[in-house]
Amino acid sequence: MVSNSSLISGISVEVRKIYDDVVKYRRYFHKNPELSLKEFETASFIEKELKRMGYSPKRLIGTDVVAVLDSRKSGPTIMLRADMDALPVVEENSHSFVSCSRGVMHACGHDAHMAMLLGLASYFRKNGIPRGKIKFCFQPGEEGADGAGKMVEAGVLNSPKVNFAFGMHVWSPLPVGEVAVLSGPCMAAVDEFEVTVLGSGGHAAYPQTAVDPVFVSSMIIQSLQGIVSRNVNPLQPAVLTVSSIQAGNAFNVIPSQAVLKGTVRTFQKETRKLIKRRFKEIVEGVAKAHNCTAKISYFDKVPATINHPEMSDFVRKIAAKLFGSKNLRDVEPTMGGEDFSRYAEKVPAVFAWIGAGNEKLGAKYPHHHPKFNIDEISMLIGMELGKEVALTYLETH
């Protein structure tokens, strides 16, 4: 049962009634996490629940689930989206619904996203919509697998054609009860790289007889940092992180190769292109200067998530009306990435953050942390926002 009256004053009675079921959904998903594009049991569970509600769900790419509610009255289509996949993280929580899959955990809140969307599907099935259609999109593979891109290619934005896409993310840096909706760029583009530096191995006591790829890798790493500090406009945010270096396994052996892995995060397309070009020039140039060669794999993962300005104002006004303007937060964009950007490239879209932090409940750890958790009241707030955004959009657009 809902107990925190100070946070739920703006929540409708109908949404409160389904809260207990939504909590059960979330805890089921949390106990049974599955990795990207392997959400087989998760998808089956969602499909079963949607059929029980009276929907006719379908699959587009295998582990997704899509269902449509049609009012049978002319109007636009809004798509509500939830991501499904968990992370390769060993959970360190001790609550009653910890992950049953060792080494796999819902450490980013996708369990809550699915639960909220099932709750909204239940609400709208019972209460109906004034006109148009709602498309419920349960999307797999958000954590690096570009599930959204695969869904777009498979036609999720068609049949019926989506006019507006809305997504939400429970957000531990925000206290429960607060909501943030940015206009324009809100989450960064994500690129991934892997560089294999090829030298010539030898005895560590005789470095002059070898070409040391570890030393050269260190030079490459330092030189790459100059891209952001010296090539990128200081007013355009960018991050280049080498997060992994793997080379050798003995104290007295110079290995023949070293492998560097990392990520690049940007907002502007021009900055993204600049970094990619300079990355290749620097890696190849530094390697050549030290008699090494470099094999570069650079992957353009997903673009920046850019909220539609007009629709962002639309969502903000609804949030302020529901929860009070004092609980509508202005926050900085994050360098974290989201493949929701794939939908925003094609149709007007808004991605909102729902405060889920509560230090008293231990919900104080960042996303992807082994002790990540949320205040579940955040799901009530998210559902109310999603409900009102959908109804107001269908009534007024």
Task: Write a structural description.
By secondary structure, this protein is of the alpha/beta class. It has helices at 13-17, 19-31, 40-53, 110-127, 147-153, 213-231, 269-289, 309-323, 341-346, 377-396; strands at residues 65-70, 77-83, 133-139, 164-175, 179-180, 184-198, 202-203, 238-246, 253-254, 257-266, 293-302, 305-307, 328-329, 334-337, 349-357. The strands form 3 sheets. The protein has a 7-stranded mixed β-sheet, sandwiched between helices. Helix 3 packs parallel to helix 4 (110-127) and helix 6 (213-231) packs antiparallel against helix 7. The radius of gyration is 23 Å and the shape is elongated. The two termini are 35 Å apart. The model has no long low-confidence stretch (mean pLDDT 96).
Mean pLDDT: 96
- Give the low-confidence spans: none
Largest sheet: 7 strands, mixed
* Number of DSSP E strands: 15
Q: How does the helix and strand content classify structurally?
A: alpha/beta
Distance between the termini: 35 Å
**Can you list the strand order of the major beta sheet?**
1-3-2-4-15-5-13
Overall radius of gyration: 23 Å
Return the string of H and E elements: HHHEEHEHEEEEHEEEHEEHEEHEH
Query: How much helical structure, as a percent, in the residues?
Result: 25-40%
Tell me, briefly, the overall form: elongated
The DSSP helix count reads: 10
Strand content: 25-35%
Set down the secondary structure blueprint:
Blueprint: H1 13-17, H2 19-31, H3 40-53, E1 65-70, E2 77-83, H4 110-127, E3 133-139, H5 147-153, E4 164-175, E5 179-180, E6 184-198, E7 202-203, H6 213-231, E8 238-246, E9 253-254, E10 257-266, H7 269-289, E11 293-302, E12 305-307, H8 309-323, E13 328-329, E14 334-337, H9 341-346, E15 349-357, H10 377-396
Helix pairs in contact: 2-4, 3-4, 4-10, 6-7, 8-10
